[in-house]
Amino acid sequence: MFAQRHHWPSSRLTSGFLAVTAILAACTGCDRAAPAATQLPTPKVTVTPVVSQETVDADEYTGKTEASESVEVRSRVFGFLKTIEFQDGDQVKGPVLGPKGEVLEEGQTLFTIEPDEYQAIHNQSVSRIALNDASLTLAKAKHARNDVLLKSKSISTEEWEESLASVKSSEAAIESAKADAARTAVDLKYTVIRAPISGRIDRAMVSKGNLLTGGTAAGTLLTKIVNEQPMYVYFDVDERSLLKYMRMRAEAREKAPGSLKDANIACQVQLADENEFSHDGHLDFAEAEVKTSTGTARLRGVFANEKRELASGLFVRIRIPVSQPYAALLIPEQALATDQSIKFVYVVSADGTAERRTVELGTQKGEMRIILSGLKEGERVITKGLQRVKPNQKVEPVVAEASLPEANNMPTTGPQPATPKTTVRKPVTPRGTAPPAKNNSQER
DSSP 3-state helix, strand, coil percentages of the chain (rounded to 5)? Predict the structure, then answer.
């Protein structure tokens, strides 16, 4: 008999082979060590120490300069313009006044109008005085004779009364002639146009030879003079700020609530092309009423403008101190980060650990920011590389010195602002490390 052979399916042989191969591979892998985790490099960041600087808190507004005096020079009489006695843009001198307002010295001559016609009219008025004076002498002589004749009853009473009326008529004619002569003298005087105030003169609006129109309202505009010493700056403040400035008054309590002139509250002005508030002045006026439509009031600052650096019509920034000097902590603005409504910074400790600190912000000083609480002087805050830092992470700090803004040179004259509860604002030490920043935080 032949032996019977068993034929195993090929699929079962393949499955068995694969299982054995997998077991051998697993046993082989057991002898190998697991690969080590990749260690991230320590981030390199730039840090700046927290610095202290004496500063003064101040309010800032936008204002507009305006000359303290401004006069339009117009022609008072008709006539042809004869001469122009100034150069465009000159500084002209006005009249010198006495203690009672009397003119001690006339102002500088600016224009002359042909005076021939007005001189002739004035001469005619003066001669009319002499003519009436002669008539008065004759009338008095006749009346004197009539006095004698009336006593002898050689003339009637009516004739005597006529001679007396002739005397009084001649006297009135003389007074009328004198008044007319005074009027023509004024017209003659107006042919010479002088500077009514001292200041900077504009260009001549009319050239020589033109016919000028006279009159108090419709006279030809010849030029304009502005007095820039002192210079005014007008600006609007809200009612809360107005109340604050009113309470800063020291010795002017008897004045009206809107009066700031005697308080001598200091202020400074910065021009459009300047980086500092380099022009010193003081407040001297506030409107009597607050505008109900806007809730603001207009204030005025006065500036000596000795170097004539301020011109009328400029838009400027004006600053008013609202605190006494105190030691403020400053950090660069770029060190601040934001987590929703929370402002925080990263402080690098001595061992290189980055600690997140929540801070309270003050006003901005150039590229620096005042910190009211959360930091101490000398601590190092990260200014560059914030995106690569997490709380309690080791960092490699590179120190960069802060660029401090120039100290406030606010003048000290006048009443000082109300003293705060603490002259030096001390930072508050944080209670602990803040929680890690959320994924939706925005860092600056």
Answer: 25, 35, 45
The helix (run of H) or strand (run of E) holding residue 15 is helix 10-30
What is residue 267's three-state secondary structure? strand
Tell me the two tokens of residue 74. 């117009």
How far apart CA 393 and CA 385 sit, in angstroms, is: 13
- What confidence tens digit (pLDDT) does each residue in 254-304 have? 554 546 777 778 899 999 998 888 999 999 888 888 998 999 999 999 999
Question: Model-level pTM?
Answer: 0.67
Give the CA count within 13 Å in the CB-facing half-sphere of 235: 26
Q: Which domains, from first to last, does the chain contain?
A: 41-55+326-444 (2.40.420.20), 60-65+224-321 (2.40.30.170), 115-190 (1.10.287.470)
Burial 397-424 (b: 16+ CB within 10 A, else e): beeeebeebeebebeeebeebeeeeeee
Tokens representing 38?
Answer: 């990749």
